[in-house]
Amino acid sequence: MYELLEPICLVTYFADECNEELAALGHRTYWDGYFASRAAPLGRVRAQVVHAAFYNFADGEAARHIPSAWKTIPPEASVAARERGSAASLRRILGGELAGSPGLVRAADLTTKAATGAPTEGRVMYAGMRTLEVPGEPVARLWHSATMLREHRGDGHIAALVGAGIGGTEAHVLSALEQGIHPPESFGRIHHLPKDRLAAVMGGLRERGLVDADGHFTDAGRATKQRIESLTDELATPPYDALSSAELGELITELEPITATLVATGSQ
Questions:
Q1: Which has the closest alpha carbon to 146: 107, 96, 119?
Q2: CA 228 to chain centre
Q3: What CA–CA distances, in Å, run from 148 to 36, 215, 216?
Q4: Is the pLDDT of residue 70 over 90?
Q5: Of 46, 156, 172, 236, which has the fewest CB atoms closer than 10 Å, so is most exposed?
Q6: Could you tell me which residues come within 8 angstroms of residue 252 by beta carbon, excluding any fewer than 6 positions away?
Q7: Which residue has the higher pLDDT, 122 or 70?
Q8: Kind and range of the H or E run holding 231
Q9: Exposed (0-12), middle (13-18) or buried (19+): which is 97, by Cβ within 10 Å?
């Protein structure tokens, strides 16, 4: 389900329409819009709360955008702009026939049934999304519900990381190594961090036996990463308990052509 739904969510970050909608509101940079629109379902919380909920940004990064991004732009406006832009991207990429198909409507209905059927306890970002009204228009509803499921999975992933004692920047290092990126400090999500900060992170992972002297996975590090991913998958299953086995099979069938079209364009 992650592989089927993730390309739907990625239009928010990869396609132009969402960024254009957020810029039109007055957000000065991509990251202003990102932090403001993603955090907005939580309300006007402080930067420390956004930092904790997002988990994998370096110290101070959230504070560069929150709460200043909301001083002249209400959170509700950022949420609406993100939805408009993301739905517009999906309609453009999918084309009129697929975007208006009965299969997409059914996929939106079943995704929404799953996305609104899971417990919210311990799921901060997911709970925030659940407070928003689900759109009526099918393409927007599919994006919204897929994004709810993405935040639900993300909350579970953070729980798995916390349980394994892996911090946010450390998680990026392990992800980079899993993708075959070496040195992991060159990974795009962390390469801009101060060298002494990255050195401290790598040093800590070496001391715990998760990476070796050359910055590669040890067997223990690879096993730790696998346990985190397996637990993340396990924790992501509750929403799908709302669907019968027949409904889940139908959802997979209806999502496949949608996802394939998005993957072919890189969700752009």
A1: 107
A2: 16
A3: 17, 35, 34
A4: no
A5: 46
A6: 1, 4
A7: 122
A8: helix 219-235
A9: exposed
Structure tokens, 192: 């801009």
Task: Give the orientation angle of helix 75-99 with respect to helix 16-25, to 10 degrees.
Answer: 150
Which residue bears the tokens 């955008």? 65
Long-range pairs of 188-195 with CB within 8 A, sequence gap ≥ 24: 189/56, 190/58, 193/58, 193/169
Tokens encoding 133: 């009204």
| Per-residue tokens: 70 | 């909301």
Q: How far apart are CA 64 and CA 203, in angstroms?
A: 27
Segment (H or E) for 200: helix 195-207
Compute the distance between CA of residue 240 and CA of residue 110 in angstroms, rounded to an integer: 10
* CB half-sphere exposure, 55, CA atoms < 13 A: 21
Residue 213, Cβ density class (10 Å: 0-12 exposed, 13-18 middle, ≥19 buried)? exposed
Instruction: Tell me the pLDDT tens digit for each residue of 22-47.
Output: 999 999 999 999 999 999 999 999 99
Nearest to 122 by CA among 153, 89, 155, 151: 155
Q: Which tokens go with 117?
A: 């059927």
212 phi, psi to nearest 5 deg: -95, -175
CA dihedral 98, 103, 108, 114 (to 10 degrees): -140
The mean per-residue pLDDT over the stretch 46-73 comes to 94
pLDDT 10s digits, 144-190 = 999 999 999 999 999 999 999 999 999 999 999 999 999 999 999 99
Contacts 24+ apart (CB under 8 A), 259-266: 259/3, 259/4, 259/5, 259/7, 259/8, 261/93, 261/94, 261/95, 261/98, 262/7, 262/8, 262/10, 262/11, 262/90, 262/93, 262/94, 263/7, 265/93, 266/14
| Half-sphere exposure at residue 241, Cβ-oriented, CA atoms within 13 angstroms | 9
